Inverse folding.
């Protein structure tokens, strides 16, 4: 029997929904539109107001409109923010955690980080910022294609760190959204935090003066439309999760070249340490590094570890270098695989 999560200290603000008492099987049969879920009165409304307050305190008149959908995103051409339904109600958060192992935006702190990032995209759209010459000089051409893969440089001092996995390095518009998010945080200590990061501070100072310029001015683009709103989706929750999990699962043999670059084959090193055994040994540390330091999604991390372990075993690969160097290669390899999965799924997948 599934019981809705209740905290004695916190009032559940959600409207009573009959499905909140359903067990998982029954809930998964519902269509997304049948949830009849709305932002107003939901658990995310206070976060949206917090975002609006932050914008107001910076003198920005623009308030991106929000709607519920399946993922976090801000569509091209529409200056608004889609919020995934699963953060809006405790019962749906519980289901998300069971299906995916984690809730992206499960804590208020993290939801605000995501909202600030998406607000950066929405503001960019609303004021046509990416078309400006000075914007392009600082961040690069927004017309650049999202790369199929990118190899982040963890030591870079040219990009801020906000959502993790060095996301700002992936594309000029992400770089802007991340920089804006850091700038928008209340009691922003960005001047101090990034004092030693010349490239990043230049971007932050640029955003700072750009926002001064925008303060008090009305946005050019006022489209209040919504893309893929929950209220129009005939997909069932079961279908939604089948597809979502399949996207995480779609790692094939495409990494063989990378694996063979980091490890040796058995014939080349007949007495080498088995790569799969080595990964098993360092797995707890590897997992910690990837989830905490690089802030990668635990489900993706587990999946990458399982996939790589399985594949190195099938290929009977062995260590080529010292254990110390191998450990570095293994961490980097997992990061590359996870990032590749994220990038191939485009902006929509991660934000
Ligand atoms: Zn983004």
């Amino acid at each position: 029997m599934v019981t809705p999560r209740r905290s004695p200290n916190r009032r559940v603000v959600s409207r009573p929904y009959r499905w909140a008492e359903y067990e998982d099987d029954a809930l998964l049969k519902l269509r997304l539109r049948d949830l009849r879920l709305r932002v107003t009165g939901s658990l995310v409304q206070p976060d949206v107001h917090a975002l609006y307050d932050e914008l107001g305190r910076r003198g920005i008149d623009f308030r991106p409109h929000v709607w519920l959908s399946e993922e976090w995103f801000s569509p091209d051409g529409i200056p608004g923010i889609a919020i995934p339904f699963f953060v809006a109600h405790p019962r749906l958060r519980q289901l998300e955690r069971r299906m995916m192992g984690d809730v992206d935006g499960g804590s208020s702190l993290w939801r605000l980080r995501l909202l600030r990032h998406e607000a950066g995209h929405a503001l960019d759209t609303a004021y046509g910022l990416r078309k400006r010459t000075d914007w392009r000089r600082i961040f690069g051409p927004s017309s650049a294609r999202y790369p199929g893969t990118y190899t982040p440089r963890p030591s870079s001092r040219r990009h801020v760190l906000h959502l993790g996995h060095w996301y700002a390095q992936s594309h000029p518009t992400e770089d802007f959204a991340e920089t804006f998010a850091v700038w928008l945080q209340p009691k922003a200590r960005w001047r101090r935090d990034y004092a030693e990061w010349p490239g990043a501070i230049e971007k932050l100072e640029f955003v700072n003066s750009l926002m001064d310029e925008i303060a008090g001015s009305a946005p050019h683009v006022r489209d209040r439309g919504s893309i893929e709103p929950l209220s129009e989706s005939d997909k069932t929750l079961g279908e939604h999760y089948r597809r979502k999990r399949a996207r995480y699962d779609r790692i094939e043999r495409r990494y063989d070249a990378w694996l063979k670059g980091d490890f040796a084959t058995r014939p080349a090193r007949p007495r080498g340490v088995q790569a799969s055994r080595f990964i098993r040994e360092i797995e707890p540390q590897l997992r910690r590094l990837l989830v905490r330091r690089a802030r990668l999604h635990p489900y993706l991390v587990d999946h990458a570890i399982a996939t790589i372990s399985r594949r190195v075993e099938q290929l009977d690969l062995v260590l080529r270098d010292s254990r110390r160097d191998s450990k570095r290669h293994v961490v980097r390899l997992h990061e590359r695989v996870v990032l590749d999965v994220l990038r191939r799924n485009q902006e929509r997948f991660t934000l």
User: Anything to note?
Assistant: The CA atoms of residues 101 and 299 lie 6 Å apart. Residues 117, 121, 174, 177, 347, 351 surround zinc ion (CB under 6 Å).
